[in-house]
Every structure is written in structure tokens, then in C-alpha cells.
Amino acid sequence: MFILIVALFCALLVAVFALQNSVPVTVTFLAWRLEMSLVLIILGAAVLGAVAVFLLGSMTLLRQRHQLREAGRKIKKLEDELSKQATSLPSQQKEQPAESLIGERNSVE
Questions:
Q1: In which domain, by residue range, is 55 found?
Q2: Position 100 in a domain
Q3: Which helix (H) or strand (E) covers residue 6, if one does?
Q4: Torsion angle in degrees (nearest 10) through CA of 41, 44, 50, 51
Q5: Within a domain: residue 44?
Q6: Residue 30, phi-psi category: left (phi > 0), alpha (psi -120 to 50), beta (remainder)
């Protein structure tokens, strides 16, 4: 909510600045030469900047979404492996004699 308020405030400042600078100017870019109001140039630049920020933010969001999806797949795979090992563990413990289990516990500690 705070970011929205700040963005609206900045947009208001740009609009006021553009309206106060409404003289016609000549813009030259490579071979093109345009004469137009400074208001249109300022507002156009602001819109292009907003679009650029939106596109870059969207790319970051998509990358993070992909990483999250990959992490979820990895978690699912590891949980499946863990459950398989947990179900096979009791059958392995029945096959081992009790003395070997006690020896393993003491060596771990």
C-alpha cells in the first residue's frame, strides 16, 4: 500500500512538472527531427520508464516463480525418497541382530 501511495505521488509530481513546462521544443534523434510540446515528451518519457520498470519487474517475478517451482519439485522428490527409506528401515532393522544396533548407536554418540 505504501509503494502505491509513493508511486501515485511521483506520478502527480511528474504531471505537475509537465504541465508547467508546456513550451514547444524540437527533438532530434538520429535522422528524425520532431517539434512537439514538452508536456508530451515528459509524459512519454515517464510512461516509457514505467513500462521498462514493469517489464524488468515481471522478468524478475517469472524467474523467482521458476526457482520456487523447481525448489518445490526438489522437496517433493526428497520427501518421496525419505518416505521410501522410512518404510524400508523397519525391515532392515528386523534382519540385523540387536547387538549390532547397540554397537552402531554407541559409535554414533
A1: 2-87
A2: no
A3: helix 2-20
A4: -140
A5: yes
A6: left
